[in-house]
Amino acid sequence: MPRATAKHLVQEHEFISPSRAAALCSVSISRFESWMRQGLVPVVRQGGRKLIKSRDLIEHLISHNIRIPEELLQGGRKKILFIGLHDHVESELAAAVVRLLYRLREREDFIVDFIRHGEHTELKIITLEPDKIILLGADQEAQELLTGLRRLLAPETSIQCLHPVELASSMDTQVH
C-alpha cells in the first residue's frame, strides 16, 4: 500500500490538542500554554482533555499578526483583507460590506480581516498573505497605496478599491 504524502488538513470544526496547535504555530508548548492561560486562545474541555477549536486558533493568529499555517487553511480557503483608508466609512459602503460579509459567512472558504490603514498595514499583509485586498474609501490616497502594496503581494493577489458611491453588486461580482 503506498504511503500518503499529503499533510493532514485541519477541518473548520475540528478540535486539536494544545501540543498540535503549538507545533502548527511553530511555538513551544510552554508559550502556547501561556496563550491559553492568558485567555488568548479559547480552550474547550472534552472528556477531561483540553482542546482548541481550529477556527479559534486561526482568529488568534490573525489578530496577533502571526502567519496562518497551511495545515489550517483547508482546501483553497481564500483570505480577504479589508483596509479602511479613513477613520470614517460612509454608511452606504459600510452597508455594502456588511451584506457581503453575511454572504461570505455562509461559505467556509473565506477568512476575512479588517484593518485601518496605518503603520501596521505592511505587517498585516506580510503575515496574512491575503488573496484579495479591498480598499475602503478609494480616492487619490488609495492609488498611492496601491503602488506601495504591489511590491508586497504575490502577482495573483487582486486589489479592489471601493468608493462610497459604488454599489454592493460590484463587490459581489469581484470577490468570487
Write structural notes for this entry.
- This protein is of the alpha/beta class and 176 residues long.
- It has 2 domains: 15-72, Multidrug-efflux Transporter Regulator, Chain: A, Domain 2 (Orthogonal Bundle); 78-175, Rossmann fold, CATH 3.40.50.
- The protein is 39% helix and 19% strand.
- The chain has helices at 18-25, 29-37, 54-63, 91-105, 121-128, 140-150, 168-175, and strands at 15-16, 44-46, 49-53, 78-84, 110-116, 132-136, 158-162.
- Helix 6 (140-150) links the parallel strand 6 (132-136) and strand 7 (158-162).
- Helix 1 crosses helix 2.
- The longest helix has 15 residues, at 91-105.
- It is elongated.
